[in-house]
Amino acid sequence: MDQALQTMINNMPEKTGKTLAEWLKILDKENVEKHAVAVTFLKTTHGVSHGFANTIVTLSKQKNELPEDLVANQYKGKESLKALYEMLISTVETFGDDVVITPKKASVSLIRKKQFALIKPATKTRIDLGLKLQGVEVQGRLEGSGPFGTMCTHRIQLQSIADIDNEVIKWLLTAYEKSV
Fold first, then answer.
1. How many angstroms separate the CA atoms of 15 and 89, rounded?
2. Are 158 and 127 in contact (CB under 8 A)?
3. Where is the DUF5655 domain (predicted)?
4. pTM
5. Order of all β-strands in the sheet with 100-103
6. Res. 66: pLDDT tops 70
């Protein structure tokens, strides 16, 4: 399991007053279908912060799949890309202790107060790094959002460790800083 996610789960009782298992039971009783509605329910009814609410809802949708299984499944047959993913995660973890890493079936969301980036193994040889950079023009390796649609404003295609250079780190940090 990603260290940041495990830390968040470990801190949940202290920060929210309940364990992950208790929150999952509450959500199960509510039987809310839509992600955003469930997040709003936890925030308004129970006073849970957005980061914890989003993580709880995401994990509730995954039922029997653990987050580490989700990441492992994304890289089955794409093992050569796992080092790129791990380098992106370790880079983002240096930005601050407020980063929430949320694995999903096909991608991993990077969230501060709101999502600022998305890591998706796009092909067997390429990761797409989606970024939220409102008001920033397409330039250099920074392309339009492509397959991310409205989830991100831009993307950078990464095929090797060497692709995670100062330009990529600068754009990732900029997206993080804009997500307050």
1. 24
2. yes
3. 72-177
4. 0.66
5. 100-103, 108-111, 115-123, 126-131, 154-158, 143-144
6. no
